[in-house]
Each structure stands twice: as C-alpha cells, then as structure tokens.
Amino acid sequence: MALDGFVVANVVSELKDKLIDGRISKISQPEKDELVLTIKRGKDSYKLYLSANASLPLIYLTEESKQNPMVAPGFCMLLRKHLNNARILDIFQPGLERIIRIKIEHLNEMGDLCIKYLIIEIMGKHSNIIFCDEEDIIVDSIKRISHMVSSVREVLPGRPYKIAQTGEKSDPLTITLDEFKASVLNKPLPLEKAIYSALTGFSPLMATELVHRSSLGSAPSANALTEEEGLHLFRNFEHMREDLINSRFSPNIVFDGKEPVEFSCFSLSCYKDLEVYGEDSISKILETFYSSKNTVSRIRQKSTDLRKIITNAMERAVKKYDLQLKQLKDTDKRDKYRIYGELINTYGYQVESGAKSFQALNYYTNEEITIPLDETLTPAENAKRYFEKYNKLKRTYEALTKLLEETKADIEHLDSIKTSLDMALAEEDLAALKEELMEFGYMKRKFSKAPGSKSGGKVKAAKKITSKPFHYISSDGFHMYVGKNNYQNDELTFKFATGGDWWFHSKKIPGSHVIVKANGTPLPDRTFEEAAGLAAYYSKGRENDKVEIDYTEKKNVKKPGGAKPGFVVYYTNFSMVAAPSIDGLKSAE
C-alpha cells in the first residue's frame, strides 16, 4: 500500500498539469515532518500536502486545512524566506525513483532571479523533504541526517545532494530485453520477488499485477521460465511501461466491502473479484484511501476492548455450557432408579431379609435385571430410596434443561454481537454494541453524578446512539436495508417493515436482518438473489463461498416473549444458497 514509482509518476503528471507556472502564496508546517504549500495559478488555488512521516510518507493535492502551530518551525521559516511568491518552473521524477523534484524560481534579497529545488523523497523511514540550491547543495531539510545516523548519505546544510542508492536495480524506463533477462529472468527467486528486487520503482503489488497480466502465477521461480514465457512477460512489461510513459493512468482503490485493500494508478486485474472505486485524480485516490484506511484502523483499535469483553464472556459461557451438558448426562440414570423403585414395590414380597440384590423382570423391556439393595433396609425403604434419587435427578434434569437453553441463548447472543462488531464502520456503531453489552450485564455501565446532588447520587449516563442501518438499492430499484446490530435488526423487522415486505437472514448462523421494501410490488428474481447475497455478506459466513439464506414475508416473522434482541422465529419460509456479495448494489447512504 506504499507509494511505488508508478504512483509517484501519476502524482508528478497531475502536479505538472495543475501547478506549473503557479506561485507559492503560503507555506505552513502543521507537523514536524509535514508541509502544506498553497499555490495559486490564475484564478485557481491548490494545496499541496507533503509528508515525510516514516510510516506514512505522502504527496497529493488536497482541499483540507490543517491547524498550524502558534510558532512556525525553523524549516518552515526558511522556506517562507526563500519561496514566498516563488514560481514553479517544473516538476519531475528521476527515472522511476520515489522522488519528486520541484524546480522553483524566486527573487533573492538583491532582486536577482534564483533557482531552487524542493525535493520530496518517499522512501519509508528514509523519507525526507530537502531544500537545495541551483547547484544541488543542500540548504536545509525537514529531517537532518548526520553521519552518526547514516554512514551512507548525510543530509545536512552545505552537503551536496545525492540520490539514495537503490542497489543494483535497473531503470524500468530504459531496460532492454537482454538486460531484463539478465537482471530478472536469471534470478532463482519467486517471479514477483525477482521483478521488484531487480527493477526500480516496482512494488510487490505492481510485480504481482505484471505476473497476473502475463498469466504466469504458477511459475515456481523466475529462472524456471521458458524462453517463450520470458518473452511474454517482457512484452506485458513493455505495455505497462508504454502506459506509464504516455501517462495513461487510471487511479483506483480496490475495496473488500467497506475496507480499502489497495490503491494503484493502473487497473488491477489481480483484484478483479473485488469492488473498484475509480477517480480521475490520483490525489483524490490517495486522500480517500488513507482516510478510509485510518477510519477502519481507528474503529478496529477502539473495538479491541469490546472484542476482548465479548471473547471472555463467550469463553465463560461455553465452559458453563459444557459443564451443564456433563451434569445433564449424569441425570440419564433417573429413569433407571424409578424403575428400580417400581419393581421393588411390585416384587418386594419375594426379597429375602438382608439380601444385597434380587432378580426381577422389567415389564417395560421384558428383560431380567439385577437390582442392588441396601441389606440394612426393608424392601419398602429401598424403594423409597430409589424414588428419592429419581425425583432429585428429575428436578436436576428439568433445571439443567432450562439453564442449557438460557446458556445456549447467551452464546448465540454473544456470537451475534461479535458478528455485528466485525461489520462496525463508525463510532456510533460501536456505541450501539456497547449499549447492548451493558444492558445484558457483560460490561458495567458508567454512571455520572446527578446534577445538584449533594449526596453524590448517581444517574445512568445518557446513551447517544445515532447508528443507522446500511441502505442499498437493488439493480431493479428496490430499497434494501441491513441491520448493523441486534437493536437495528428488531427495529427494521418489527417497526420499519410492513407485512408485505420481504425478510432475509442467514440460516442457523448469526447475521443481519435484511428488509426489502416491496411497496405492494412483486420482487423480480434478481432482487431476491441480490438480497440473499446481501444477507450472506452481512453474516458470520461472509468468508464462505456459499451461505444458505432463509427468506419470507415479514408478516411470517415473530418475536417470542422475553427473547433477546435480534432473535425471531418463523415457520413459513423459502430458502436459497447465495454467494456473499454486494456487487451491483448501489449504496444509498
């Protein structure tokens, strides 16, 4: 997901189109390793965001504003001194390096025109923003690198600027077939690794894409390719290079559901089964991708505590269930004791005094059985003892049967909350799940002091839940709603849906209630299939190839008294098998 040489080339192409001949009107440094340049060209104004952050180096055009520190850092003041109202002459990328050089013209203190370079290096932990003069002598940098930090290259004022060494990698823009064979096809490495370790600017993603376009994914290693396969790979590489040289870019993000997986400046055939979001601007792609990625990461981080609570509660419930099953199995002897008591009462007159057992015919099975006796007790007392054992085990069985149902319901409830947590995309989604966990005692509710209370009286903290169901529109124009949690499932099914609407749910596994608003119109087969795919996608079976889905009219769905949120029963339904998918559905959110 890092910016490779191809994406940098796309960024350079976009910046050339929008910024050349523009003037730098404002320079700010919101973070220690970030710059924002405001550039005006004619009537247009652009904000260029530059980041040398070790974990997230970036460069793109943005419309967002960032809060600046009260006192500008030294590097920012230096750039303001030299580059205020300076004109951008050129923007270029050396080879296919992850480096962008911005050539800038400005007036010095004497009023003479001077040339400077602002160089952005997007190289992971080695990322930097370097300010150089016309002779490529470093004026300063946002990160100063001394020989104590790097013995390979110093980045300090007064030192000559030189590009960081990329080893023995070849330039993809100039490499010939013979050179390609020597640097790539002779390596005893997996084909993808042979490509990105031999060619500058290639990321593992672009190497994978090249191999996929060449249909060589099954190749054991680069040096195992035949002459024809090697030539076919190079021809596909040339097509990719031609698109790059001619700036035939198609910026896009690949999504797995709501989660961004990868971005690129070229169409990714290796992800053809996932949803693709495209834009004309690579800047919009980068901004959208990292914004979406940060949202998903933040939600996952904030959901860690809830996931831990659910996991611990689930483990306790499962252990409890296993123990109750074991105890229930011990009650299997209850009917045997009842029969012993009945047979002793029936044949007790035949029992000799002091006998430790006696043989009797079990008239239920017509078999002869041996009944143990306590020789110190009379037959009547032995019968009474067996009936007492029977009644005790019977009471235990009845109590355990009820407890097992309750524990199983708890496990299913927790499993449904866990499934809802997996699909949470916003903080309000987490708030609804947190409220459910507190309501059923899985976590403690926070209390606040009552206003004006002198005795320290406490009141329940007010809950603010604004989470809304997912809303899609089918290919045939029908509105479909998906509950994100158990509360929403109940709300959709029993308050929002009408009797003639259709209800979908994954069979025997946790999942969302899906409501299709029919509005008195018969649903086409395609809408049934899309709604079933939606129910499969928002279920615990999302990772499976197929999921069995039950569907019925909403009027057939009932809520048992005292049932937990999201739990329903239905006795009239249809079923189908569907692949988990939201392809072809338009989000109405």
Largest sheet strand order: 24-21-19-20-18-17-25
The CATH superfamily of the domain at 5-141 is ibrinogen binding protein from staphylococcus aureus domain
How does the helix and strand content classify structurally?
Answer: alpha+beta
Strand composition percent:
15-25%
Helix content: 25-40%
Distance between the termini: 27 Å
User: What's the CATH architecture of the domain at 5-141?
Assistant: Roll
Shape: elongated
The CATH class name of the domain at 5-141 reads: Mainly Beta
Radius of gyration: 36 Å
Number of separate strands: 25
The major sheet is characterized as:
7 strands, antiparallel
Helical segment count: 13
CATH topology of the domain at 5-141: ibrinogen binding protein from staphylococcus aureus fold
Stretches where pLDDT is under 50 for at least 5 consecutive residues are: none
Subunit structure: Associates with stalled 50S ribosomal subunits. Binds to RqcP.
InterPro entries: NFACT_RNA-bd (IPR008532), RQC_Subunit_NEMF (IPR051608), RqcH_bacterial (IPR043682)
Family: Belongs to the NEMF family.
GO molecular function, one term: ribosomal large subunit binding
Write a brief caption for the model.
This protein has 589 residues and is α+β, with helices and mostly antiparallel strands.
Task: Characterise this structure.
The protein has a 7-stranded antiparallel sheet. Strands 5-6-7-8-9 form a 5-stranded antiparallel sheet, with helices on one face. Among the domains are: 5-141, ibrinogen binding protein from staphylococcus aureus domain (ibrinogen binding protein from staphylococcus aureus fold), CATH 2.30.310; 307-420; 424-460, no CATH class; 470-587, no CATH class. The relative contact order is 0.06. Helix 4 (191-198) packs across helix 5, helix 8 runs antiparallel to helix 10 (379-422) and helix 9 (334-347) packs antiparallel against helix 10 (379-422). Strand 17 (470-473) and strand 18 form a beta hairpin. It has 13 helices and 25 strands. It is elongated, with a radius of gyration of 36 Å. With 589 residues, the protein is α+β, with helices and mostly antiparallel strands. The chain has helices at 5-19, 74-83, 177-185, 191-198, 204-213, 227-245, 282-302, 304-330, 334-347, 379-422, 427-439, 486-496, 525-537, and strands spanning 23-28, 34-41, 44-51, 58-62, 87-92, 99-107, 113-121, 128-133, 138-141, 252-256, 259-264, 275-278, 357-362, 367-372, 447-449, 458-460, 470-473, 479-482, 502-506, 514-516, 547-553, 557-558, 569-570, 574-578, 586-587.
